[in-house]
Amino acid sequence: MNRNIIRLLAAATLLSLAGAAHASSDAAWQQFAADVEAKCKKAAVTIEKPTATIDPFGSTHYGLALLTGKPKGAKGLIAQICVYDKQKKTVEIGSELDGKKLGLMPAK
Q1: How far apart are CA 79 and CA 105, in angstroms?
Q2: In angstroms, rounded to a whole number, what is the distance separating the alpha carbons of residues 64 and 11?
Q3: Per-residue confidence of the chain (108 residues) as pLDDT tens digits?
Q4: Per-residue H/E/C for the chain
């Protein structure tokens, strides 16, 4: 009887590992990056035509992106950090960071 339980637990473990491997496929990571990019760009309301640089995997719990672009109604370059909650599939945007202070502007 104990052998049947061990076999059942082993089968359940293998099935769960197979599911985890599937979730880490190239297509799944590409979809993840596309979702992070789309949601972060939509949330970047203070940047005209934001450009997103996506961390391809993020952290354990979050997707990460750096958004850059021209601030609406002003000159210059700003950046914002975007954090994407992998479970909730929601984003939060950090405050505006000066592109010059970050070294994103070319030297004159």
Answers
A1: 11
A2: 35
A3: 444 555 554 555 544 444 444 457 899 999 999 999 999 999 999 999 999 999 999 999 999 999 999 999 999 999 999 999 999 999 999 999 998 888 887 766
A4: CHHHHHHHHHHHHHHHHHHHHHHCCHHHHHHHHHHHHHHHHHHCCCEEEEEEEECCCCCCCEEEEEEEEEECCCCCCEEEEEEEECCCCEEEECCCEECCCCCCCCCC
Q: How far is the C-alpha of 78 from the C-alpha of 60, rounded, in Å?
A: 27
- Give residue 6's identity as a one-letter amino acid code: I
With the CA atoms of 71, 74, 78 and 81 taken in that order, what torsion angle do they form, in degrees rounded to the nearest 10?
A: -30
Single pTM value for the model: 0.74
CA 98 to chain centre: 22
- Give the rounded distance of the alpha carbon of 107 from its chain centre: 30
